[in-house]
Design brief:
Elements (H helix, E strand, L loop, with lengths): L2 H17 L3 H16 L6 H8 L45 H13 L13 E2 L31 E3 L26 E4 L5 E2 L7 E6 L7 H15 L3 E5 L14 E2 L2 H4 L19 H11 L3 E6 L1 H16 L5 E6 L15 H21 L3 E7 L6 H10 L4 E3 L13 H11 L3 E6 L24 H15 L5 E5 L12 H19 L5 E6 L2 E6 H4 L11 H10 L6
Parallel strand pairs: 5-6, 5-8, 8-9, 9-14, 10-12, 10-13, 11-12
Antiparallel strand pairs: 1-4, 2-3, 3-15, 6-7, 14-15
Helix pairs in contact: 1-2, 5-13, 7-8, 9-10, 10-15
Bound molecules: adenosine-5'-triphosphate, 6-O-phosphono-beta-D-fructofuranose (F6P) and magnesium ion (MG).
Length: 560
Amino acid sequence: MNYEKVNAQFTDFLCRLLDDHHFELVHILTRMAFALQSSGNFYSTQHKWLHSTRGQSFYGSSHSNAKECTCKKSKGPAPICVKATSTKVELDFNDPSWKQKFQENWDKRFDLPRITDIYDLKPRATTFSLKKNRNSAGDENGTPMDKWNGYVNNDDRALLKVIKYASPNSAGAECIDPDCSWVEQWVHRAGPRKEIYYEPEEVKAAIVTCGGLCPGLNDVIRQIVFTLETYGVKNIVGIPFGYRGFFEKGLKEMPLSRHLVENINLAGGSYLGVSRGGAKTSEIVDSIQARRIDMLFVLGGNGTHAGANAIHEECRKRKLKVSVVAVPKTIDNDILLMDKTFGFDTAVEEAQRAINSAYIEARSAYHGIGLVKLMGRSSGFIAMHASLSSGQVDVCLIPEVPFTLDGEYGVLRHLEHLLETKGFCVVCVAEAAGQDLLQKSGATDASGNVIFSDIGVHMQQKIKMHFKDIGVPADVKYIDPTYMVRACRANASDAILCTVLGQNAVHGAFAGFSGITSCICNTHYAYLPITEVITAPKRVNPNSRMWHRCLTSTGQPDFH
Ligand SMILES: Nc1ncnc2c1ncn2[C@@H]1O[C@H](COP(=O)(O)OP(=O)(O)OP(=O)(O)O)[C@@H](O)[C@H]1O
Ligand SMILES: O=P(O)(O)OC[C@H]1O[C@](O)(CO)[C@@H](O)[C@@H]1O
Ligand SMILES: [Mg+2]
């Protein structure tokens, strides 16, 4: 089957549906497409494409197996898949200047949307300075009078990629052209600027946390409040229970101050509450307008970012001077271009505790099999990293790598081998793995995310049945830590990440950016346009060194 053609036809179909306002259906279908990818049907599309094209544009999807949505026009609510504001140019790799064209286009795509794109505004000297005895008001030209070199220049950049792959066949190679030439990909450096576009005394800032819980939400809220107050902002509020808090009657905004949030990082969860669903962009923006909010800080995952971008666009359409800045939150680590999202590290740490328990149970039982199911909506990052960190996993199963349970090359046969040779074993399975082996639940959550069928319970039953059938004793211990991996406070590494991302979000808003996200790219802190990070969920690359390291650690064979 020509999967690329099917993929393109599917995208066109989605775009047509979007024009007909069938948003919910499109949402479900898009999720189905990702599920289809995870079943392996679209698995090597990018790789094959990379080897078969010359003189065609195919850059931009190097972080994911999914290709970018190419919707031409869209009425109604924002699609899950949003086209970048700067379009991609068609590249001819036989043209000697293709690299220059690529880079010019890249710079346009990664340029940050600013409120000055639509308003003619004059900046003022920043009120943010950590220098003692400062005169933050600046001189008569608005230039800060102190000589503190603590500001980031608007032209500062960080490199997104630092590996030069000599060949497209190098492990994990992410290439722009068929020869895998070295191309610089710069992103904007995050941090405080010398000039700002808001009068802090007049600013009303709001914070909202959306989607599922994630360790570190309170750390980010706290740092946003601290930093806003350092600029001199007095009016800071929290929107309760995600986007819902903007329009649901009876939900009142919560006043925030350093005093109120000082200790919230000591507990997990969200001080403001979270929710899924209910994203009606126009109602949210009506509410922003009515509440006279100037800066909105949005903490959430892929869906939340799509919502934040829709809010940013709607504010522009209505000519509202509002900065919308997102902070990428998700234990799943499934947001494109960034090293990691906050909460992921803590989730992995908690997950490996479950694996350790499974190991102890399995090790101590006669023919013990420890089975652990871990969260991860469409990607196997938590399962892969928890397997790597525990070092006790014999089989790691993720949605990006298809597998079979039965047959000569199936997982069950390998478990037999493990019981024969080492006497026990530990299996770690990601919740979205092996969905092709199960009957689809067909259910979705309030945000339209597909609810997966339970691969953990299915495997537990299959393993028990298999060993009963072959007459070999097996003591199966199943652990599903579910919410335990995310309903906890951030660990040290996440707490630091949250601190930096939260502070930078405020610096970005004062610098006049909107429609951006505050993140970590290639170990440096950066701002990215939201449009560039929501084209598809990030997924584990089965050809990456990290997955290969996981396989080296588990020693598992291919299961198909
Ligand atoms: N395409 C979209 N446009 C506008 N809003 C959206 C879109 N997708 C999701 N949302 C809204 O964003 C919020 C959060 O979405 P979702 O439940 O998918 O969580 P998430 O941000 O992806 O985080 P998590 O990692 O916990 O899943 C919900 O209120 C949802 O309605
Ligand atoms: O909080 P809910 O709605 O049960 O959602 C669970 C999902 O949220 C996440 O924890 C974060 O996206 C996923 O790993 C999981 O599939
Ligand atoms: Mg999501």
